[in-house]
User: Which sequence fits this backbone?
């Protein structure tokens, strides 16, 4: 029990003293999460909207593929991205392995199906009355599409927050593609795994606390948008 | 008698193999108020959607201002429908009412026109303009939806059961707003209602639709 208490005391000291190594992992986490979330939203919202809004041959197959990829194991994503980015891989010349950008690619693959599926479901769930209302108010096809996406905005934001929660807490892809390099690609989750293995509970607990605060903020935001989506 | 705004001949609409509307002839004079009644399932709401250019008829001819409409999107800028259960956009009252003007890039005096439309349906713009869609009662939401149509000063305003489940005050306001639209802009009104007494007090003429044919 003593080592846990010692770990808590060390955690408070590290956080209060703005320990550079601890905060390097926090900044790396925020950088890689921000980068991958941006890419996830830029790709996921238009694709998700198209999937939910338009009727096209093979739509059900695409939906099934997207929903299946929601449960893709992170180590499998890490393995595939590692294989593509490694020196012998097809994208090896880009030099992205063990970089923040490389990690962001893997985490984008993780977050993309979440935003895609939630956006598509939100758009599919829009009422027929909305389409009639927009048309009878004089909207053309483009205006109907844009206004429909705007009506689904709270659910889309909920998808973004859900994806962020998944990305920020991920460890497998970050470890395999990032390499857990100190001051560089070491994130909160990979640092916690490493420090715990080393028996350094203080830094592990400190970083765990930061992750819990991020999770709390994400959860509060998700709750807010969930309530707004269904007033 | 003014020229007809709408004329329809042998109009029919089917949902698959299910006939939804059969109408031998319809003529609606410009600036008039036509009431539509009939039993459930006779196609009253379907007819309004056809007149609003939201649904194309399966068969028959529909003339608007004496011509068949080649571009329904352009015609929808002149005609608007208030659905039986209106949908309010997830925005403020002001943003709901101004929405159609924004679509038309009609920027002149937007705020004054929104205030005018809200006043027509008996809602104080000062009190209601900034309210959000979920802060309204059913009657207020119905009146905001009507205001979002009135602000467009349409050539034809089609109302589907506009007073269903409304209190007497809201019903009276909608009655007054409909008459005011005709007086101010010469708007033609086609109103579906089961409330025969109310409809008789508003409409110039009442057409009783039958399920099979009229």
Assistant:
């Amino acid at each position: 029990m003593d080592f846990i208490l010692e770990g808590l005391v060390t955690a408070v000291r590290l956080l209060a003293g703005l320990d550079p190594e601890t905060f390097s992992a926090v900044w790396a986490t925020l950088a890689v999460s921000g980068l991958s979330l941006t890419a996830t939203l830029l790709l996921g919202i238009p694709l998700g909207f198209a999937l939910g809004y338009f009727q096209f041959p093979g739509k059900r197959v695409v939906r099934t593929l997207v929903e299946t990829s929601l449960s893709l194991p992170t180590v499998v994503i890490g393995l595939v991205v590692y294989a593509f980015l490694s020196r012998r891989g097809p994208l090896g010349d880009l030099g992205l392995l063990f970089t923040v950008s490389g990690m962001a690619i893997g985490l984008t693959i993780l977050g993309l199906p979440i935003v895609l599926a939630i956006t598509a479901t939100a758009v599919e769930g829009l009422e027929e009355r909305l389409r009639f209302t927009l048309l009878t108010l004089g909207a053309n096809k483009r205006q109907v599409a844009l206004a429909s996406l705007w009506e689904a905005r709270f659910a889309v934001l909920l998808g973004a927050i859900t994806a962020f929660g998944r990305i920020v807490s991920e460890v497998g892809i970050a470890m395999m593609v990032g390499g857990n390099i100190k001051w560089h690609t070491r994130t909160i989750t990979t640092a916690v795994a490493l420090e715990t293995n080393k028996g350094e509970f203080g830094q592990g607990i400190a970083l765990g606390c930061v992750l819990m605060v991020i999770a709390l903020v994400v959860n509060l935001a998700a709750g807010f948008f969930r309530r707004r989506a269904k007033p | 008698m003014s020229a007809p705004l709408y004329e329809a001949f042998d109009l029919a609409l089917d949902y698959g193999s299910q006939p939804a509307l059969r109408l031998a002839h319809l003529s609606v004079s410009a600036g008039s108020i036509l009431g539509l009644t009939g039993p459930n399932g006779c196609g009253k709401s379907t007819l309004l959607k056809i007149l609003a250019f939201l649904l194309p008829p399966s068969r028959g001819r529909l003339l608007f201002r004496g011509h068949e409409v080649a571009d329904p999107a352009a015609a929808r800028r002149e005609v608007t429908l208030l659905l039986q259960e209106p949908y309010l956009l997830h925005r403020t009252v002001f943003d709901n009412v101004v929405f159609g003007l924004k679509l038309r890039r009609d920027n002149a005096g937007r705020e004054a026109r929104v205030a005018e439309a809200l006043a027509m349906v008996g809602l104080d713009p000062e009190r209601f303009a900034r309210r959000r869609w979920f802060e309204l009662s059913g009657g207020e939401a119905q009146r905001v939806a009507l205001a979002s149509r009135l602000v467009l000063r349409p050539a034809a305003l089609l109302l589907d059961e506009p007073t269903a489940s409304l209190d007497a005050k809201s019903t009276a306001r909608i009655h007054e707003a409909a008459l005011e639209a005709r007086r101010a802009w010469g708007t033609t009104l086609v109103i579906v209602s089961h409330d025969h007494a109310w409809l008789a007090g508003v409409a110039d003429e009442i057409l009783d639709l039958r399920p099979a044919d009229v």
Observations:
- Residues 6 and 64 of chain B are 5 Å apart (CA to CA).
- Chain B touches chain A through 24 residues (CB under 8 Å).
